[in-house]
Structures are given as structure tokens and as C-alpha cells.
Write a structure and sequence with these properties.
The complex is a heterodimer of chains A (130) and B (368). Chain A is built from four helices and nine strands; from the N terminus they run βββαβββββααβα. Chain A has 130 residues and is an alpha+beta fold. With 368 residues, chain B is an alpha+beta fold. Classes of the chains: A alpha+beta (130), B alpha+beta (368). At the A-B interface, strand 4 of A face loops of B.
Amino acid sequence: MSNIPSELKYVASHEWIRVEGDGTVTIGVTDHAQDLLGDVVFVELPEVGADVATGDESGVVESVKAASDIYAPLSGEVIAINEELEDSPELVNSDPYGDGWFFKLKLSDNDELNELLSAEGYTDLCESEA
Amino acid sequence: MGSKTALYEKHQEMGAKLVDFGGWDMPIHYGSQVDEHHHVRNTAGMFDVSHMTVVDVTGTDAKEYLRYLLANDVVKLQEKGKALYSGMLNEDGGVIDDLIVYLMTEPGVAGEWFRVVVNCATREKDLRWMSDQTASFDDVALTEQPDLAMVAIQGPKAISLAKQSVNASREKLIDQLSVFQGLESEGWFIARTGYTGEDGLEIMLPEDEVADFWQALADADVKPCGLGARDTLRLEAGMNLYGADMDETVSPLAANMGWTIAWEPQERIFIGREALQAQKESGVTERLVGLVMETRGVLRSHQKVIVEGVGEGEITSGTFSPTLGCSVAMARVPAGTKDQADVEIRGKRVPVRVIRPSFVRNGKKVFD
């Protein structure tokens, strides 16, 4: 069974969200997602300063197996991207919740946080897909 | 659940992720397919290829039968154990399968026989076709060998590490093997062949001995590798994958297999010859090329290839090349394609270089 930290929030498209408490969030893909993808070889991220809306295609993860879109789980402005992934895309596999993070958003609507799944909700979802 | 090879429990024990492959539960990787790929290029890796189909061809007409069945000519096998790569074609010249055939005896002796290894996904149609073609011969027998397991050990250190994992007589036999030759030793058939572009061995042995051999190889630091790495390695080596790069609707002349057709002697009749001759005379309109994308992204099969002013083609196999750090592919394109093309990737046109379909051999890049 994959690792699903209880302190994070999730969406059904397999991104995780860490709520930083200052109106910003950090986003990445879950351990379950990286396991399905296999070795990640390229990550395409949004531009810093870009405005994204919930559900927007905001990047692409390319693994040896397939290309997968990354969806913005929340609306806001991109305030940082993980530049390490340019040279070390394998961080998505080795540390999906840590050094393998994708980008940070400054939220435009805090209420959207209520729509996210808890670790428990995401665990149920993964099990129902298995 | 699919069929299981005799190494199934070893795979589970060694942490394999198992997937369905042609009805078999096979390892796709044991953690990281990219690490496994590098391991084969740098030292040595081993693959369970027991799912492949082994058919022995015996009888006084065995040679004449194979000369009729295959586009390549087994008469080229002039030393015991020598191997030949060939297409098996239908009457229209389409590729039913690609295979390896070994001469199992001294050439031309009484009792001369051959061993053929065909793909797993095509097993049933191959066996049916091969059996149907025996009708015009008096004395040919086909015997499948489903009880043989097969392990491929590949990489610059494959041979030396394999030698540490076998008994003295087999070690001696391995030393005698020339490239593309296989010989028998106490029930094991040991061949210096492979599907990775590296030196190495493919060993066929009884199922009940394979788990111990696999463990001995692991103890000698040969890393278990899955079908994922096998695919990126063969693609870098420019070796075709049946069902992706060619099939029954594709001529070997449009699949970079022209070199496997033995046109001489002209009086030899083989299945598909007439069709190929006609294609050659009217001109082959497509060819299989290699593509290299030097920008970020990964080429994938079925993406459209656009050759400005010439026409369009399609990627037949594409991947990220761990050795080169960029994406490479094989593509079927119009015959007039030069050295540049574009590939359509999710709605965007991305420029690629067109080269001969061979990217890496013996650990080194082979194009400029």
C-alpha cells in the first residue's frame, strides 16, 4: 500500500496539497501516482506568476511509460516552482511528498480548501480504483 | 491470473512489479526500470524470457522446410550452433513474426536439426502457420519445448559474471562461444545472443533448475531486470519489436529488415518472395527510420510524423533513452524523407532528427 500522509489534503486526480497556513499551498503528486507512472523523466511546470483555476492543465509529467497532465487542484497564482525537477525528475519517484514537490500557489479563494479530500477520503478512493 | 514462469516466485521475492504480457504474469520492473537499464549498459542484468516459444525442427527435410518458411536462408549457418535472424512472411510478404533460428548440429550431417525461438504473443498463429507449411514436405517434425525456461544475461560484464554462476564444463563452453552462436552442455543450451545491443548470453535450461541459477546470478551481482528495461534497451539498439515496428500488414522492406532477406540463390523459393520481388520492382514507398528529439519530452508510438513537402508517417515505438538522456523513436515514414521531420506531440509540432534506426551499441552512442 502506498504512503498517504495524514497531514496533507488530496484531489481525485492524484495531486496532494500541503496547506501552509499563510494563504499559500504546496502541490505535488502522490506516492500512488508516482508508482503508477513509473520512472519520471521530464516534468513540465507552469510559469511563476501564472494564474491557474481549479482543474486547469498546469503541467505535464512524462515517465518512461506515459505522459500525464498535472491539474491545478485549487485556483490562485503560481508563486514558486520546483526548479530541481529540471535536472532531477527522479525526485518525483524517490520523494513525492518532499523534494519532489511541483509548485506553490497563492490562493485566490480559501473556500476551495473545503472541497479537498482528507487522507482517509483519498485512501478510500485509491482502494476503489484498485 | 496469467501463466507463470518457473521464476514467478523469485520475481515476487525480489520485489518485481508483475504485469500481464501476452497472457503471462511478467516483471515490468523491480523498482526502477531506468536503473535496470543503466545496469545492463554498465555491468550486467538478467531477464526472465521463459515466456518465449521454443520450437525444434527435425527430420530429413528440416533444412529444406526452413529454406521455404523463412526469408533469410539457413544455408548461411555453416558452423554448429550458429544463429540467424529472420522474418517469417506470409504470401503477401507481410511479417507473421520475426525469430532466431539456431543450427543445432554440424552443418549437413545426417540428423541435422534446428531450434527456432519465436515471440510469445504470436505463439498460436506461428505454430499453426509453421505446422501448415510442413504439408509440402515428407519428413519434418515440429516439437515445442514448453518445459524450457530461458534467461537472458546482458551487459559488458554479463559473460564473466555468468561464468561464475555455472559449473566448470559450462564455463568452458561459454569461453568457446563466438558471437551469435549457441551450444549445448548437460541439458542447457547456452547462446551468445540477446536483445539489448550488449554482449551477453541467452540460456535455455530445464524449468526445475532455473530458480537456483537465477539466485546464483543474483549472488554474483547480476541485477534482475524487467520487460520495461528490455524495451528501452532494444529500442536504443535499433531492434524491432514485433507488433509495434512491423506486423502482417508491413513488408520487411518497410521495416528495416531488408538485410534479413536472402535474395540469393535466386532459385530458392521462400514464402513471400514473389510479393517482395514485385514490391522491389515497383519501389517501396515507406521505410523505418530512427528519430532523435533533442528537446524535452518523450516520443510515443502512434504520434504523427510530418515531413515537410514529402508526406506523413507514424512513430512505431518511442521512448525516453536513459543512455542518451533524450527521447528516441522508430518511425515509418515516406521513402523520400531526408534528415529532418516534425512530430506532433499533444497538438504541438516538435522538430526531430531522422537517422538510421540504431542509437546505442555496447554502451556507446552510435550516431553523430
